């Protein structure tokens, strides 16, 4: 297969261009996260699978841009960017906020007759499982405390007060997007869904993860790992292997 030359723009990071890859994996970061979180995933899967990581506005090289604090607005913007990349089958992977966003993106893609090979929803309860949460309304110290408790932010960044203060607007915006999201009942996805969760994640119960199965008419799989909300930091190899096997079996 000959790769198409596409400008990635502000939204898409293509760390290891793989023009001969037959499929792509689209990765969606967690709240406060950035596309670079998925650099190791891209390195591990290239050149068999080309990884595209989504970069939300308000962080890293996009830190001067307006943050988007609404999942549906984010999904509309991402889909507008991904239309140029639908020349090959794609699989979606999202962690935490990224899982909810990936779900909304998948709904929009399927409405345009682009059915993903699958959706991997990691570290997030099913869209129909709502909790009242108000982390985005915390003061800066409360927000920092949440970051430290969740252990999803680089430890060096947490120790750098100046750097930490720089990312707080994006973190707050992301938490607002996640916490104000409300599922709108409608047709489920056609693509398979794989829910991934840690067995000690305070943000997701096993039952809440299992309910992702209600959101697809396709196959559903639940995978439970030892660990908390960022279980995947310790089990990256197993998660990547599962994604690779899923794509290979398409």
Write the layout of secondary structure elements.
Layout: E1 12-13, E2 23-28, H1 39-45, E3 49-54, H2 71-82, E4 90-95, H3 97-111, E5 118-122, H4 140-150, H5 155-159, H6 161-180, E6 193-198, H7 206-210, E7 220-225, H8 236-248
Parallel strand pairs: 2-3, 2-4, 4-5, 5-6, 6-7
Antiparallel strand pairs: 1-3
Helix pairs in contact: 2-3
**What is the strand tally?**
7
Distance between the amino and carboxyl termini? 17 Å
The parts where pLDDT drops under 50 for at least 5 residues are 1-5
Number of domains: 1
The secondary-structure class comes to alpha/beta
Q: For this structure, what is the CATH class?
A: Alpha Beta
- Which term fits the overall shape? globular
Instruction: Specify the biggest β-sheet.
Output: 7 strands, mixed
CATH superfamily: Alpha/Beta hydrolase fold, catalytic domain
Query: Which range does the strand content fall in?
Result: 5-15%
**What series of H and E elements makes up the topology?**
EEHEHEHEHHHEHEH
Mean pLDDT: 91
Instruction: Please tally the helical runs, counting DSSP H or I stretches of 4 or more residues.
Output: 8
- What percent of residues adopt helix (DSSP H or I)? 25-40%
Strand order of the largest sheet: 1-3-2-4-5-6-7
Question: Using only CA atoms, what is the Rg?
Answer: 17 Å
The CATH architecture assignment turns out to be 3-Layer(aba) Sandwich
The CATH topology assignment is Rossmann fold
């Amino acid at each position: 297969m000959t790769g198409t030359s596409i400008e990635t723009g502000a939204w898409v990071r293509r760390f290891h261009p793989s023009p001969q890859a037959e499929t792509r994996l689209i990765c969606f970061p967690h709240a406060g996260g950035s596309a670079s979180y998925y650099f190791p995933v891209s390195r591990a899967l290239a050149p068999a699978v080309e990884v595209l990581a989504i970069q939300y506005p308000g962080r890293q090289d996009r830190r001067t841009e307006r943050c988007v604090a609404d999942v549906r607005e984010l999904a509309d913007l991402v889909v507008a960017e991904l239309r140029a990349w639908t020349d090959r089958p794609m699989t979606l992977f999202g962690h935490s906020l990224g899982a909810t966003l990936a779900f909304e993106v998948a709904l929009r893609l399927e409405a345009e007759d682009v059915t993903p090979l699958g959706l991997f929803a990691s570290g997030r309860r099913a869209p129909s499982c709502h909790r009242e949460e108000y982390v985005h309304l915390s003061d800066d110290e409360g927000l920092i405390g949440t970051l430290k408790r969740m252990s999803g932010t680089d430890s060096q960044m947490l120790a750098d007060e100046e750097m930490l203060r720089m990312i707080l607007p994006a973190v707050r915006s992301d938490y607002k997007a996640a916490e104000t999201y409300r599922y709108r009942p409608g047709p489920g996805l056609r693509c398979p869904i794989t829910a991934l969760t840690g067995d000690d994640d305070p943000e997701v119960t096993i039952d809440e993860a299992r309910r992702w199965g209600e959101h697809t008419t396709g196959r559903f799989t639940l995978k439970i790992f030892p660990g908390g909300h960022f279980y995947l930091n310790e089990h990256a190899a197993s998660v990547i292997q599962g994604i690779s096997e899923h794509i290979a079996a398409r």
